[in-house]
Amino acid sequence: MKNYNHTTYAILGILTTECKSGYAIKKFIDNSLNHFWKISYGQIYPTLKSLVQEGLADVYTSSSEGKQDKNEYHLTEKGIDTLKEWLGQPVEQLPIERNEILLKLFFSRFQSYDQTALLLNQYKQRLESRHQTYLAIEQSIVYHNKDDEDAMYWLFTLDYGKSVTISAIEWCKRTLGKLQKKED
Amino acid sequence: MKNYNHTTYAILGILTTECKSGYAIKKFIDNSLNHFWKISYGQIYPTLKSLVQEGLADVYTSSSEGKQDKNEYHLTEKGIDTLKEWLGQPVEQLPIERNEILLKLFFSRFQSYDQTALLLNQYKQRLESRHQTYLAIEQSIVYHNKDDEDAMYWLFTLDYGKSVTISAIEWCKRTLGKLQKKED
DNA sequence: TGTGGCATGTAAATGGTTACATGATTGA
DNA sequence: TCAATCATGTAACCATTTACATGCCACA
């Protein structure tokens, strides 16, 4: 079976939900996948086109006179099979996330302790606000999708985000403490 | 002051260590920055060239007759200033790490519990081996660079890697447990 | 004599973002 | 009537990887 890129699989997956248009897909990503995946329109529309070309989806265009075109994409059998096949494949390798704060910290002997502490504090604040966002999303999933088959898996990914974020916040605090000690 | 891309700053930073050639830079990245940054030769050599063009570094080429060229790059005053200036700037936004396992998990209702559990277990193993690698690097830093000014900051970034990895491993275990419960 | 590490580089392809362009619909 | 949101799309640009090309040197 042919291999596609990650963006293609992400969109195949989203098309299994009630989101069927490029615009809806973008919304869905921004609302639900935002903590571990993002895609721009510049990828979405071309990818949707290629899905149709590859026979992974059909498109239904509602072009009433005068009105704007709206495209609805629906997975074909082949599309579903392709998605399932990808889901079954093991994850090749751990992502090496490029982390700007770590890169800066790595070379921070060229900075004052104060400056470095400021950097870490700003970072910590962002992590905290991200954590708040996760909590809010979690509430909304629990509230709206109690019976949803998907909900369990969505909560799993959120749980990951929460745990890792908390762990990073703890690291910030710890590291700030060590810097403080050095300063004395 | 002009803005450069992250790769440029990473290389500026590495040029402050004893690594002065494209080859040495690549080694350094693979050994020390590997858990949060990686760069290929396809970026390194062109970037080094552009550093010289921009006046951020000087290049000294040892081209003895018959022998192969070896290039040594040294930061200029302007290069150091540019690096310091970047270090002082706050990190714009948290990285959204694209995480393939989370993407798969998100759509895992199309998979059997067994398949999903297998996926998570494989992932957990990779995390565990990564954690082992971190411990080994830590040992080697502590052993070789006890007095090094840089060592503290290097250990900070490693500590981040270790914490976040452990947190992810815990999440794997927890999530596997929840799946197990569902299966009963 | 051949293998692995040292050493430098480029071209093509891929992946992705940003900025732009266009226009309809909805509700205040 | 104005602003926000709905809706689709493209072109240029930027970043990055991969595959390729070359050749030295040390040492077994």
From TrEMBL, chains A, B:
<dbReference type="Pfam" id="PF03551">
    <property type="entry name" value="PadR"/>
</dbReference>
<feature type="domain" description="Transcription regulator PadR N-terminal">
    <location>
        <begin position="11"/>
        <end position="84"/>
    </location>
</feature>
<dbReference type="InterPro" id="IPR005149">
    <property type="entry name" value="Tscrpt_reg_PadR_N"/>
</dbReference>
<dbReference type="InterPro" id="IPR036388">
    <property type="entry name" value="WH-like_DNA-bd_sf"/>
</dbReference>
<dbReference type="InterPro" id="IPR018309">
    <property type="entry name" value="Tscrpt_reg_PadR_C"/>
</dbReference>
<dbReference type="Pfam" id="PF10400">
    <property type="entry name" value="Vir_act_alpha_C"/>
</dbReference>
<feature type="domain" description="Transcription regulator PadR C-terminal">
    <location>
        <begin position="98"/>
        <end position="179"/>
    </location>
</feature>
<protein>
    <submittedName>
        <fullName>PadR family transcriptional regulator</fullName>
    </submittedName>
</protein>
<dbReference type="InterPro" id="IPR036390">
    <property type="entry name" value="WH_DNA-bd_sf"/>
</dbReference>
